[in-house]
Design brief:
Blueprint lengths: L2 E6 L2 E7 L4 E6 L4 E4 L4 H9 L3 H10 L5 E3 L16
Antiparallel strand pairs: 1-2, 2-3, 3-4, 4-5
Length: about 80
Protein backbone atom coordinates (compact mmCIF):
# COMPACT_ATOMS: atom_id res chain seq x y z
CA UNK A 1 0.00 0.00 0.00
CA UNK A 2 1.40 3.38 -0.97
CA UNK A 3 1.55 5.80 1.94
CA UNK A 4 1.06 9.55 1.59
CA UNK A 5 3.11 11.67 4.01
CA UNK A 6 1.16 14.14 6.12
CA UNK A 7 2.12 16.33 9.04
CA UNK A 8 -1.11 17.07 10.83
CA UNK A 9 -1.60 16.58 14.55
CA UNK A 10 -0.34 13.09 15.36
CA UNK A 11 -0.69 11.81 11.75
CA UNK A 12 2.50 11.25 9.79
CA UNK A 13 1.29 9.10 6.86
CA UNK A 14 -1.96 7.73 5.43
CA UNK A 15 -2.65 5.10 2.80
CA UNK A 16 -5.67 3.41 1.27
CA UNK A 17 -6.06 0.14 -0.62
CA UNK A 18 -9.24 0.43 -2.67
CA UNK A 19 -9.28 -3.31 -3.50
CA UNK A 20 -9.36 -4.39 0.16
CA UNK A 21 -11.04 -1.17 1.38
CA UNK A 22 -8.37 -0.81 4.05
CA UNK A 23 -7.02 2.43 5.49
CA UNK A 24 -3.59 2.51 7.14
CA UNK A 25 -2.42 5.43 9.26
CA UNK A 26 0.97 6.05 10.83
CA UNK A 27 1.08 8.11 14.00
CA UNK A 28 3.92 10.35 15.18
CA UNK A 29 5.15 7.64 17.57
CA UNK A 30 5.49 5.14 14.69
CA UNK A 31 2.31 3.21 15.51
CA UNK A 32 0.57 1.80 12.43
CA UNK A 33 -3.19 1.35 12.57
CA UNK A 34 -5.45 -0.28 9.97
CA UNK A 35 -9.16 0.17 9.49
CA UNK A 36 -11.27 -2.25 7.45
CA UNK A 37 -14.40 -1.38 5.44
CA UNK A 38 -13.12 2.09 4.64
CA UNK A 39 -14.91 3.63 1.67
CA UNK A 40 -13.34 5.44 -1.28
CA UNK A 41 -15.46 8.49 -0.36
CA UNK A 42 -14.03 8.53 3.18
CA UNK A 43 -10.53 8.24 1.69
CA UNK A 44 -11.21 11.13 -0.68
CA UNK A 45 -12.35 13.30 2.22
CA UNK A 46 -9.41 12.37 4.46
CA UNK A 47 -6.71 12.66 1.80
CA UNK A 48 -7.98 15.97 0.45
CA UNK A 49 -8.76 17.55 3.82
CA UNK A 50 -6.96 20.75 4.75
CA UNK A 51 -6.96 19.40 8.34
CA UNK A 52 -6.48 15.61 8.11
CA UNK A 53 -5.96 15.21 11.87
CA UNK A 54 -9.31 16.86 12.62
CA UNK A 55 -11.08 14.75 9.99
CA UNK A 56 -9.40 11.61 11.37
CA UNK A 57 -10.35 12.39 14.98
CA UNK A 58 -13.95 13.34 14.21
CA UNK A 59 -14.85 10.75 11.57
CA UNK A 60 -12.50 7.79 11.89
CA UNK A 61 -10.98 7.51 15.36
CA UNK A 62 -14.35 7.92 17.10
CA UNK A 63 -16.37 5.79 14.66
CA UNK A 64 -14.20 2.85 13.53
CA UNK A 65 -12.15 0.24 15.36
CA UNK A 66 -8.48 -0.04 14.35
CA UNK A 67 -6.11 -2.96 14.33
CA UNK A 68 -2.46 -2.35 15.23
CA UNK A 69 0.05 -3.64 12.68
CA UNK A 70 3.80 -4.06 12.86
CA UNK A 71 6.18 -2.03 10.74
CA UNK A 72 6.34 -4.99 8.35
CA UNK A 73 2.56 -4.85 7.93
CA UNK A 74 1.60 -8.08 9.67
CA UNK A 75 -1.37 -7.75 11.99
CA UNK A 76 -0.67 -8.25 15.67
CA UNK A 77 -3.45 -9.99 17.52
CA UNK A 78 -4.38 -8.53 20.88
CA UNK A 79 -6.41 -11.09 22.90
CA UNK A 80 -8.37 -8.25 24.51
CA UNK A 81 -9.77 -7.33 21.07
CA UNK A 82 -11.82 -10.57 21.18
CA UNK A 83 -13.66 -9.30 24.24
CA UNK A 84 -14.88 -6.19 22.44
CA UNK A 85 -15.80 -7.51 18.99
Amino acid sequence: MEMQKVNSGRLRAIGFDEKTRRLRVQMDDGTLLEYDDFTPEMWRRLSSSTAPWSYYRDNIEEELHPRRVSAAGAAKHNPLDDLFS
